[in-house]
Amino acid sequence: MATAAVADGYTVGVVGATGAVGEEIVSVLSRRGFPVKQLKLFSSARSAGKVKNTPLGDITIQEFSVPEARSCDYVFLAVDGDFAKEYAPQITQDNGPVVIDNSSAWRMDPDVPLVVPEINIAAAKGKKLIANPNCTTSIALMALYPLHKEFGVKKCIVSTYQAASGAGAPGMQELLDETKKYVTTGELPSNKVFAHPLPLNVIPHIDKFQDNMYTKEEMKVTWESRKIMGLPDLRVSCTSVRIPTLRAHSESITIETEKPVSADRAREVLRAAPGVKVVDDPLNNQYPMPLTATGAFDVEVGRIRANDVFGDCGLDFFVCGDQLLRGAALNAVLIAEALVKQTA
Amino acid sequence: MATAAVADGYTVGVVGATGAVGEEIVSVLSRRGFPVKQLKLFSSARSAGKVKNTPLGDITIQEFSVPEARSCDYVFLAVDGDFAKEYAPQITQDNGPVVIDNSSAWRMDPDVPLVVPEINIAAAKGKKLIANPNCTTSIALMALYPLHKEFGVKKCIVSTYQAASGAGAPGMQELLDETKKYVTTGELPSNKVFAHPLPLNVIPHIDKFQDNMYTKEEMKVTWESRKIMGLPDLRVSCTSVRIPTLRAHSESITIETEKPVSADRAREVLRAAPGVKVVDDPLNNQYPMPLTATGAFDVEVGRIRANDVFGDCGLDFFVCGDQLLRGAALNAVLIAEALVKQTA
Known catalytic residues of A? Predict the structure, then answer.
C-alpha cells in the first residue's frame, strides 16, 4: 500500500493501542500533524469494541487481524517481540503496508534497518519492515552520533537511570501505587512488574542476564549503537539501572574520541544537532533532568565537560530523554514522516 | 587526653548530635560496643537542654563549648565545614582529645590524615585530627582498593546514584514529604533543600560547580581517592547524581587495570576484602540495592563483569553502601576503634 495521495493522508494502524507506547504513538501522530486519513487502533480481544478517546477523535478499538492491518498504509507495532516476530512478515508480505516495529524482535536482523531518523534514515528506503531502537540507545545516540561525526568515538561507557515506563503502563502504575502505599501507611512496597520493589530503591537489572553477565538491555546499547552508527567495532559498555522515576531516562556517558575534544566544541556541535536541546548552564542550575525532559521531543544534553581520564580525548556528558517519545513513539513516527517524504 | 584505661572506657563527644550523621554515630557506637564511659551530646543552643533518648541511654544535650569538648577522649564532629575549620584545632590543641571530623574542611590538608580504616589506618597513628572521607568515596574505595592491590587500577569512571541523606535529615524529610504530597494530592513537588524537586526526578548536581564544570562532590571522589590510596596520579572521573532514594548510595564503576582482570578473580578478591559483601548472583536476582544495603555495615558489591572496552584489563561493577554508615558514622567509629587498639 503506502500509495495514497498525500492530500488524502494515510491509513495508519497502531497495534497495542492500549499500552503506554501505543497511546503515545497516537498522541505524537497528532502533535506532529502526521497526515492521518484514518486511524485504526488494534488490541487484544479483551479491549476490542471499546471506544478510545484520542487526540485524533474517538476510535473504536478493533481486535488485531492480519487483513485489517494490511488495509493500512503504515502500521506501528507497539507489542512484544513474539507478536512482532510472528505478524510483521504477514503484514508486510506481497506489497503490504510499511511496519515500524517497536520491539526488539527484528532489530538485529541484517535485512531489517534499525533506524534513528536523524542518523540513518537512508537505510529505510524501500523497506517494508523497519525496527525502532531500544529506548536507551536512541536517547544516547542523539548526542553520541553528532559527537562521533565531529570527533570520532572510540570508547563509550554508559550508566543509565531508567524510568518505570520502560516496563510499560503497569510499571508506572506499580511505582505510583507502591510509593503511595509506603508514604501513607508505612507498609513496605511490594512488586509484581519489577524484580524488586522500586520505590526509594535502585535495581541494576533490566531484561535478562546474558552469558557475559551483562543484561540484554545493556547489550542492546552495544549492539544497536554499532548497527545504527555503522561502527561494528565501537567499544561500548553499559550498566542499565532502574530507578524510581516515571518516564524519562537519564544516562551518564563517558567517551574517548579519536580527535581531541573540548567541552566548548562539543557544546557547539550538540547545539547544531537535530533533536537535541543543550541544557548546560550549571551555574544557573540548568542541566538535563526528567522533570524538564518529560513530554519533550528533544533529548536534553548537559554536564558537558572534558574528562582527563582519556587525556585530551575524553568527554563526560549527561543526557535525559522521554522514554516514551524519543525512546519509542516519537522515533517511530519520525521514521514514518521521513518515509512519507521519501515517497512523496 | 585519650589516656583513660580501656577497662573504664572513654568519654566520647558527638558534636551535631541532632543531625542525621550525629544520631547514626551514637547508634554505631552502641552497635559496635565501643567502650563508652560517658557520652556527651553537643548541639546548638536551640536544642541544648533537651533530653535525647539514645541506644546508650537518655542524654541531656549540651550547647557546644570548647572546654566541654576538650573534656572528652574522642570527639566526633558531625557538623559543617566552617564549624570544623574553626573548632577542630581549638579542641585538639595542647594534647586535647582526638577529633574525627566528618566534614570536608580538613580532608585535603597535607597534615591531616584522611582515613578509611581498612585501607590506611596507619596514617592516623599519633594524630589528633583525622578526617573522615566523603561518603561516595569511602563506599567506592571499599571495592576499589582491594581490586587495586590485586590488579592495579589505572583509570576509574564512576556514576553515582546518591540518596537524599547526603543532604542530612532535612533532605530525607523533604523527599518523603514532597513525595507524599505528590502521590496523594497530585500537587507538584517543591524544594528547599535540593536545587530542584527530587521526587520522581534525577538531579545531576551535588555541591558547588568548580571551574572545570565538575561539581565539588565529583572532584572529592578524585582528590580523596588519590589521597587515601596514595595514588596521586590515578585518573578518576565521577558524575554525581542525586536520585529519589533515602539513605544508601549506589555507584556504577568502570575501571581499567594494570594487570589483566577477570570477573571470577575480582569476585574472589572482593570476597576476601573486609567491609565488603559480594552480592552477585544475577540469575537469582541478587545484586547490590539500597533495599538491602540500607542499615548494613558492609558495602554490597555485585554486577561484576569483564568490560572489553579496556581489552582484558577492564572491569565493571556496581556498589551500594549505606551513606550514613560506611559513608559517615561507621567509618568514623571504626577509626576511633582502631585508635583505641593502637593506644591499648
Answer: 135, 249
